Amino acid sequence: MVAVQQEKNGHARILAAARTLFDSHGFHQTSMAELASEAQVSVGQIYRLFKSKEDIIEALVHDDADQWCKDMGALQVRLDSGELTIEQTFEQLLIQTIDEKDEALSFDILAESFRNGEVADTIGAMCQRFRVYIRSFACAANDRLSGEALDAAEEMLLACLFGLGHRSISRPRLSAEVAARRTAQMIIAALRGVQ
């Protein structure tokens, strides 16, 4: 039992260290020795838990996807219970996206997905999980959406989430809160405008 707990702690420390180092130095520029030092584990322990740095990236994507789905699930419950309007739901979703802290890491992971099919598959699977919630939110804004229009709404919303998650590079003029509120209003208007 102690060994299992130590392995879980090591796994968590490695992912936390990877998140920090990959974000600040880049995926390819971070050595396994640096990662081991930051995580306070041996290089051997890293290789016992992960086959490669690509496996670490996949684990980070899975962890992020799990958290995002948990957050979207909570928004869905609040929307379904009437605690939030659809406008407030989109605003909350967008503020979570804008407040994403690992922007550089996210870019590095996306770039790696173009070089590595396994990472691309992991990101694709993550997006499939998101699509379930996104479709539900789109239908809550306009219950007439179906077929191609609903598929297009999904694509638009995913693009908004990806774009707003990387907005700092464009030197935005609006605060995160204002951007989330105004973008939510525009999304709702666009979704409701589709016949």
Brief summary:
InterPro entries: Homeodomain-like_sf (IPR009057), HTH-type_TetR-like_transc_reg (IPR050109), HTH_TetR (IPR001647). This protein is mainly alpha-helical and 195 residues long.
How does this structure look, described?
One of its GO terms (molecular function) is DNA-binding transcription factor activity. By secondary structure, this protein is mainly α. The chain folds into 2 domains: 1-50, Homeodomain-like (Arc Repressor Mutant, subunit A); 53-193, Orthogonal Bundle (Tetracycline Repressor, domain 2), CATH 1.10.357. It contains 9 helices and no strands. It has helices spanning 2-25, 32-39, 43-49, 53-80, 86-98, 103-115, 117-141, 147-164, 176-193.
